[in-house]
Amino acid sequence: MLILGLESSCDETAASLYEDGLVLSSVIRSQVDLHRQYGGVVPEIASRAHLEAVDLISRKALDEAGRTLNQLDGIAVTQGPGLVGALLVAMNFAKGLAFAANLPLTGVNHVKAHALAPFMSLPGEDTAPEPQFPLVALVVSGGHTNLYRMDDYLTFTQLGRTRDDAAGEAFDKTAKLMGLGYPGGQVIETMAERGDPEIFRLPRPMLREGLDFSFSGLKTGVLTLYRNHKLAEKPADDITLCHLAAGFQAAVVEVLVTKLMAACAAAGAKGAVLAGGVAANGALRRAAEKAAKKQGLRLYVPPLAWCADNAAMIAHLGARQLAAGQPPLELSAEAFPRWQVA
Ligand code: KG4
Ligand code: ZN
Question: Closest-lying ligand to the alpha carbon of 141?
Fold first, then answer.
């Protein structure tokens, strides 16, 4: 089944061609340069940039896969969660295309789609692993920190979520208050590599209290240390800043990995999934791998390119929904900006 996937929920416009487990093309236009000067995503700017890009990106995805519109079997589009104005751009474009080409259109939950990213591959590469269910998935990004039990590729039950900031948001806010720019995940990881995580020991919020998360207090901890040590007066590559980045990252990683493993034990999982933009973090990947091994679990993590937002994961989940006979979207279908998985 050849599927065109489309994604515009936040600040990446993306399109992808996916067929039977293989990603034939994955085109992503990031808007990060447009939003950087504001220190975060500006919804109005995001919608406008999606509108400018969606047609071109879709054509490019078809071209790069060497396919044409009339070869498609269906279209998948992110229906939520995300910024409503941004979501509507790909949704309306997808509706028009599906109507004109007489193709079924399926609406995809962006967070669920992240969890399917480890299970697709590129043509000519080893085929993606076929997992044994149930799995527990931790989707950790700029907008979400959610734990799910997956009974199959389509059946998700939410086990935990963040009560305030997402982990990626914590990285971004911490980087901003340390004067490191936006987005913050990658820059904190790079600084942390030079730092000692034991010098500034930050709290591990809710470490042993259930499967929900809370990250908003951590940035206050960082801010206090930043002020007390007068770090604003130091150059950006100062080793003390690196120690603070390392201390912060170690706290986030410990909380994420501890809860992922606790959820696996509670759900009787046969494997664990780590996905979303923050899953690109090397320290997190290594810690999760070590903990999973200790617990006798296989860990599934997407390649770096499929951790961040992309449309291949949307096409993948969409293909499975259509194959399972889920009813296609009506032309009147709405976007769900706060779409929660049950
Ligand atoms: O999945 P994603 O591209 O978009 C959302 O759906 O939010 O995730 C973006 C988030 C940002 O908060 C970014 O700072 C974080 O992922 N991120 C990282 C790393 N790379 C990206 N966080 C920690 N370490 C990284 N290497
Ligand atoms: Zn995402």
Answer: 1
